[in-house]
Amino acid sequence: MKLFWSSRSPFARKVMVAAHELGIADQIAQERVVVSVAAPNDTVLHHNPLGQIPTLVLDDGTVFFDSAVILEVLDQRHGPLLFPTDPAARFPVLRLQAIGDGLMENSVRRLGESTRGVLVSAPHVAAAVQKMSRTLDWLEAEAASLASLNAGSIAIACGLGHLDFRFGAEDWRPGRPALAAWHAGFAERASMRATAHRDEY
Q1: I need a surface site. Which of 80, 87, 97, 127 has the fewest CB within 10 A?
Q2: Total structural domains within the chain
Q3: pLDDT of 177-191, one tens digit each?
Q4: Region at 174 (left for phi over 0; alpha for psi -120 to 50; beta for the rest)
Q5: Whether the model pTM is above 0.90
Q6: CA proximity to 64, closest of 82, 49, 78, 79
Q7: Residue (of 45, 44, 94, 92) closest to 68 by Cα position
Q8: Of 24, 51, 78, which residue sits at a domain end?
Q9: Residue after which a domain boundary falls, among 36, 51, 78
Q10: Which ranges in the chain belong to alpha helices (H)?
Q11: Phi, psi of 172 (to 5 degrees)
């Protein structure tokens, strides 16, 4: 398998954390690419019309994109570990994954907007910050639901990790002790240490 990937992408990290937890990280060849809204990557576009990462290419040439879909594929082929098979247990995990993905989306959106120089939109940045803060407060209240390893807890851990990576000076932990304690423990997992963000192309 080949994964189009960047060490700076929280969504790509999410896929590789899952791969480590499934014990298949060594079966995935990671090809580092640079993608941006203003400069689509032709190599990625060849496989994924959205031009986004992560994009996974299986050995038979089948392509999957969007981290949530890729996790489903990997878990179907090498699990189950990330998604419960019982619908009553599965839906809460999907909800946690959605909130984690949303945290990452707003973090990436805020970062992208803040790099536009004189064109930066203060209202857009403020909206992203508000959504991120509300998400963190929601997670603090729901911290007890993060005890299990699954797609949801992985997504949330990667979202929090991206906040530390890109907005470390704005510590999200004060006032959220339960979430902070959970993340401190999860961040020590071998899968998280092996996939730590690096600010490189």
Answers
A1: 87
A2: 2
A3: 999 999 999 999 999
A4: beta
A5: yes
A6: 49
A7: 94
A8: 78
A9: 78
A10: 10-22, 42-47, 67-78, 87-114, 122-141, 151-166, 177-186, 190-194
A11: -85, -5
**Average pLDDT of the chain?**
95
Both tokens assigned to 86: 């019982």
Q: How far is CA 115 from CA 106, 107, 112, 121, in A?
A: 14, 13, 5, 10
Fill in the DSSP letter of residue 83.
Answer: S
Token pair, residue 1, equals 């398998």
CATH code for the domain of 36: 3.40.30.10
Pair (153, 127) in one structural domain: yes
Distance CA 150, CA 97 (A): 9
CB–CB of 129/121 below 8 Å? no
Give the residue carrying structure tokens 């071998």.
Answer: 190
